[in-house]
Design a protein that fits this description.
The complex is a heterodimer of chains A (262) and B (429). With 262 residues, chain A is an alpha/beta fold. Helix content of chain A is 43%, strand content 11%. In chain A, strands 2-1-3-4 form a four-stranded parallel beta sheet. In chain A, strand 5, helix 8 and strand 6 form a beta-alpha-beta unit. The longest helix of chain B is centred in the first third of the chain and has 30 residues. Classes of the chains: A alpha/beta (262), B mainly alpha (429).
Chain lengths: 262, 429
């Protein structure tokens, strides 16, 4: 656990005249949110272990503009997008991997018509490809037999039809994967999308994350697996309210990294 | 033989069709009041979508009970309409069951129609009970109070009566019953009419049936039932992009690229494509594009969207179905305004946003796409919500305070929180 993470930047690669295999787009949550930073680190440990030649933009990365766009601020979104595309072009980036489905969706779907064309993968898709290619193996049965349910992030699932990659990874852990009544296409939002993360909800009878946590509790999991830093925050809050100490909320990358005691 | 019935039939038939055509022209006009939108390309995928989703009812069975019943009614509706062809020809020529001499196949056809009519009757009765006595949440929302609820029931009554008339018409047709070819269902009802003037009842049922169909056809324009026609174009013109994609406003792209280009001379360009649009986003139906307006007319208010909406499920005011219903109601209002002002829209001081839809509804959306996924006929309420947010933010600067904070953080330091961009890599330590 204690060893130093190798996190090279695109600038370092460029200075050495080299090009990494992938750009790891960390995202704002992954960079600044204390909980999400742990996901970032877990993913980097896996990348280091699989000896993936990757780089981050570091201080040159900026918000993709997703929360601005979904709040209706198209100007701000496009300013962010065009600026980011400039930076990505400077480094001739072809392939991007990110642990945030919001960044994933925006980079994949909304950047192309502004001139940014990349192969964009969610980290669960990338980890799956590492497994399939034999570059990464999942060892250690730390989670063996545990009941785990996966919460589909809207921007990974419904928005982009990625349902199986995270589930395939979880199944490799020899766990009991249980599905909530609303899963895959019918997955219920955690309540953070559309910039709701940054504001109080409108008046209602309940918070959305509480509703979703209750749905998860119905299948009595020991762990709720997530694939999005914002879902992670919302579900963690929900668990604190409803089932403190009984359920853990973990990102799929954390599950894999922890299983191997990375 | 008197030609009077033939003439009366022709008058009813053509005036019914003419009135319908007039309303369809109005409908078309109203839809094209919307802004232009690029629907070119992906022709093959669009046809496939229409075939699978509308023709094949692909998404209906996700709710097994209502989905199954709906398919019965849909198949019944489409297939029984073959019989209308015979009825219309008989009406014009004064003949009686003109196709009956085509042999045993006629019995097979009518038999099929009878079975379907019976199944449709049963299904529609179940629909009525589901709507009115079983407490199904999506049929109890407040946006259905008044006309929408009555509209839903009227459609069911129409169908019940039309199916009953079809069976009665066959049951009282002495010749048809005695031929014993195709009277699978009606033979059980024939004895009820013994002792009555069956010839008269048969004629009354025949006339009421065809006149009922023509009235029902014309009722469509005023009801939520237009989906039986518009589901087809709507699924064709529905989005072919991943659901996560939201369009980039082109005029803003031009503006942003101009700002980013050090070579650009802002005074040199006077071409129209760099002109700002008259409004960012949408506050009224005329600001929406025509596919969004087609969506509004297509909506049959089933409420699958609303029942999947996380905001609605947790008691917020947002209901995607209401967004569509409001859009249609306002569009009809604008259309009537144009009709009564010699083809020109006269400002009426009313807007879709504010007078129909509140800001509170608009801000409750999580953009999760559950409503879009749930719609069995490719309606996209989220795109309308987004256009209204764009209007509120870019025209009115009326975002909730916390969102303004989030946006100024992005502007200042490239993250929704107030952390310096220079600290982006601190996590690795």
């Amino acid at each position: 656990m204690g060893d130093v993470l190798k996190v090279p930047t695109m600038a370092e690669f460029k200075a050495a005249g080299k090009q990494p295999e992938i750009l790891f787009w960390v995202g704002c949550a992954g960079s600044f949110d204390d909980r999400a930073r742990k996901i970032t680190k877990a993913f980097v440990r896996l990348l280091n272990k699989a000896k993936v030649d990757f780089a981050v933009l570091g201080t040159e990365e900026s918000c993709t503009g997703d929360p601005a766009k979904r709040s209706g601020n198209e100007f701000l979104f496009q300013m962010q997008a065009v600026t980011n595309i400039e930076v990505l072009s400077t480094y001739d980036v072809k392939k991007i991997v990110t642990a945030c489905p919001h960044c994933f969706n925006t980079l994949k779907n909304e950047y192309p018509s502004l001139g940014g064309n990349y192969k964009v993968m969610h980290h669960t898709q990338f980890l799956k490809s590492l497994l399939d290619e034999g570059r990464l193996t999942i060892e250690g049965g730390k989670f063996k037999g545990k009941r785990i349910t996966f919460h589909d992030p809207c921007f990974l699932g419904r928005a982009n039809d990625v349902y199986e990659a995270p589930r395939d990874l979880i199944k490799k852990l020899d766990v009991e994967l249980v599905e909530m009544k609303n899963c895959r296409k019918k997955g219920l939002c955690c309540g953070a999308g559309g910039a709701q993360m940054f504001k109080d909800a409108e008046v209602g009878q309940k918070e959305i994350n509480i509703e979703r946590t209750e749905q998860a509790m119905e299948v009595k999991p020991e762990i709720i697996a997530a694939g999005c830093p914002f879902c992670n925050t919302m579900m963690t809050d929900g668990v604190k309210n409803k089932a403190e100490g009984q359920i853990e909320v973990m990102d799929v990358a954390e599950l894999i990294a922890n299983a191997s005691d990375l | 033989m008197s030609l009077l019935p033939n003439i009366i039939f022709a008058i009813i038939f053509f005036s019914g069709l003419g009135f319908f055509a007039r309303n369809i022209r109005k409908l078309r006009r109203n839809i094209y009041l919307g802004k232009d939108v690029d629907t070119s390309g992906d022709t093959k995928l669009r046809w496939t979508n229409m075939a699978k989703i509308a023709l094949g009812q692909g998404k209906m069975t996700r709710r097994p009970i209502s989905g199954f019943l709906h398919i019965v009614v849909y198949l019944g509706f489409v297939i029984i309409n073959i019989e209308v062809l015979e009825i219309v020809i008989d009406g014009f020529l004064g003949t009686h069951r003109i196709f009956s001499n085509i042999g045993p196949i006629y019995g097979v056809l009518i038999g099929t129609f009878e079975v379907l009519a019976f199944l449709v009757f049963i299904s529609v009765v179940i629909f009525w009970f589901r709507r009115n006595t079983v407490n199904i949440k999506r049929f109890m929302s407040s946006e259905l109070n008044g006309w929408p609820k009555l509209d839903g029931n009227l459609i069911l009554y129409f169908e019940i009566v039309l199916m009953a008339l079809f069976i009665i018409m066959n049951a009282t047709d002495v010749e048809f019953q005695s031929s014993n070819n195709g009277n699978i269902i009606s033979q059980f009802f024939a004895p009820i009419f013994e002792g009555f003037n069956v010839n008269l009842i048969e004629r009354i049922a025949w006339w009421m049936h065809i006149v009922g169909i023509i009235i029902f056809l014309n009722y469509l324009y005023y009801s939520k039932h237009l989906h039986i026609l518009l589901a087809f174009p709507n699924t064709y013109f529905g989005s072919v992009k991943p659901k996560g994609f939201l369009n980039n406003i082109e005029s803003i792209t031009n503006e942003v690229k101009l700002m980013m280009d050090p070579e650009a001379d802002p005074y040199a360009s006077d071409s129209t494509d760099t002109l700002a649009p008259d409004k960012f986003g949408a506050s009224d139906v005329l600001d929406l594009n025509w596919v969004q307006l087609l969506n509004a007319y297509t909506c049959t208010e089933c409420g699958r969207c609303t029942s999947e909406c996380p905001a609605n499920q947790t008691g917020k005011k947002l209901s995607p179905r209401k967004i569509m219903m409001d859009t249609r109601d306002r569009l009809v209002e604008v259309g009537n305004n144009i009709d009564s002002n010699n083809g020109e829209f006269k400002l009426d001081g009313i807007q879709l946003l504010g007078d129909y839809i509140t800001n509170e509804e608009i801000w409750a959306c999580t953009s999760c796409n559950a409503c879009v996924e749930a719609c069995p006929i490719s309606i996209d309420p989220l795109s309308i919500i987004l256009e209204m947010r764009r209007y509120l933010v870019m025209e009115q600067s009326a975002a909730p305070m916390e969102l303004n904070n989030m946006m100024s953080n992005i502007e200042n330091n490239g993250a929704p929180w107030p952390y310096s961009q220079m600290d982006r890599l601190n996590w690795k330590n």
